[in-house]
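Notes from the 1:1 (GR / supervisor)

We went over the backlog. Supervisor wanted to see one worked example end to end before approving the batch request, so GR pasted a single chain during the call. The sequence is below; no edits were made to it. Supervisor asked that the structure be written out right there so they could see what the output format looks like.
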Amino acid sequence: MWPVRRTDGRFETEAQAGSSTISARNADRYAAFVAFVSSVDTQRAVSLYVRLYPLFQRAYTDLGFPDKYFNDRVVEVIDNLLATPELPEPIKVKLVTVEGAPRPSGAGGLYVFDDPALEARSSGQKILLRMGRANASKLKAKLTDIRRRIAQGPVARAAHNQ
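Structure output shown during the call:
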């Protein structure tokens, strides 16, 4: 089971100079999600987060982090996403083959970044890279606004006062 609905369509690649790259058409798969996130009223979302924060903190403590703050972790994750590099497109990828497994017919298969440094990045950063620079830029703008609101001022104080 997926905790969120998967994007429609399949990951698309294009052949370029003997290698595969992420197709520009792949960004279209994320357009509805990016439009949804962009339409969310940031102040209202942050207000809801602050109101529910005691529940988040209690769950975080129950997960085994009794001496840490959930809000600090949220800011850390946002910082990780904001650190996603803005690379020239298209980005090279390669199809992963498993010894003895049948090769997928037609489109599909598991692709990884050709550059090991990109493949070593967090899952969130890799998704931002796959969705295209324009989509990633819109999400990073929203994340920057959210981070500003929860990392300082009353939100951070409320988080640390629980």
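Supervisor's comment: The first helix runs from residue 31 to 39.
Batch request approved.
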